[in-house]
Amino acid sequence: MNPVPYRTLYTGARMPAIGLGTFGSDSVSAAEIAEAVRGAAAVGYRHFDCASVYGNEKEIGRALREIVAGGIPREDLWITSKLWNDKHGEADVIPSCRQSLADLQLDYLDLYLVHWPFPNFHPPHCDVGSRSPDARPYIHENFMRTWRKMEELVDLGLARHIGTSNMTIPKLELVLRDARIKPAVNEMELHPHFQQPELFEYVRARGIEPVGYCPIGSPGRPERDRTPEDTVDTEDPVIVRIAEKHGLHPAVVCVKWAVQRGQTPIPFSIHHYRANLEGVSGEPLTEEEMREIAGTDRNCRLIKGQVFLWKPDQSWEDLWDPNGEIPA
Ligand SMILES: NC(=O)c1ccc[n+]([C@@H]2O[C@H](COP(=O)([O-])OP(=O)(O)OC[C@H]3O[C@@H](n4cnc5c(N)ncnc54)[C@H](OP(=O)(O)O)[C@@H]3O)[C@@H](O)[C@H]2O)c1
Questions:
Q1: End-to-end C-alpha distance for the chain, whole angstroms
Q2: Residues at CB less than 6 angstroms from ligand 1
Q3: Phi, psi of 224 (to 5 degrees)
Q4: Angstrom distance (rounded) from CA 128 to CA 290
Q5: pLDDT tens digits, one per residue of 90-126
Q6: 0.85 exceeded by pTM
Q7: Are 214 and 238 spatial neighbours (Cβ–Cβ below 8 Å)?
Q8: Which of 215, 232, 245, 251 lies deepest, with the highest CB count within 10 Å?
Q9: Active site residue 54
């Protein structure tokens, strides 16, 4: 078994190259997820991807306290949390981070992300057809007001790094132009059927680490996040064949591919987290297998973000800056 690799961020900090996702897709309870956090730490996970909107930071906080009390030093853990969309207001950013810190029972976060670039309240569990009357397009000046507060979190020592999520190249261009503290990480959807090669290369070339969500193609995602066009990574014949050859589940092949490609996957799991970690530390995929998986990309975005649409007759593609422009 090889040790789990780390990514070195532009600050010199080391982030474990695989983390445990903690969004239960509305079907896995907070208690079960906290138990998975305990179990995952026991088998070697040190990186946990949390968010206030997942509704389980209190339970995970109790698990983290036990993990540290059990002898794993806090400095060895990498804990991420995220600012939810209804908290972009300047007065809300620092209190939201403090709330996550209190819930997670931590003095600092390793990484705090702006979860989405759109400020928008939509009720938990709402349908993708739900629209907020206050929905707005991406307004860069407003995002920078939020970002200034994110930068203050670093100054205050409450977050060691700050980052973005669900961004595009046009939006990142503006943020990189205007930020005092540049994002250390961009969290983005990444799996074999959705490889986002352009954005992936863009962030890496600028010293921003890509963290990949839905690395297995989110087979347990809520019904509202499914459309008939979606494809299934773990049923892809190339991935199935490589998995059979290695004696692994296709999901593990997706995670191995992610780490070897250079992103940091954060697979959610309450039953298979050990297999995913062992997969990453085991025999690597061959260059030929890596090339074959690169060829399975279908540009199939699963988390489309429909609830953020801000005017009638729009399509979800508008959220992702088609043609390289931010639509007004
Ligand atoms: N920034 C964002 O906007 C954003 C958006 C979406 C997700 N995320 C983060 O990314 C994390 C991961 O995404 P996700 O949870 O949607 O999808 P995912 O990690 O692609 O898939 C998770 C599902 O795969 C199953 N699974 C995991 N390992 C497996 C294995 N080795 N064999 C068979 N099945 C396996 C899990 O089942 P078991 O539980 O039964 O193992 C679970 O149902 C989230 O939990 C969250 O932390 C962030």
A1: 51
A2: 21-23, 49, 115, 165-166, 187, 213-221, 249, 251-252, 266-272, 275-276, 303
A3: -65, -20
A4: 35
A5: 999 999 999 999 999 999 999 999 999 999 877 777 7
A6: yes
A7: no
A8: 215
A9: yes
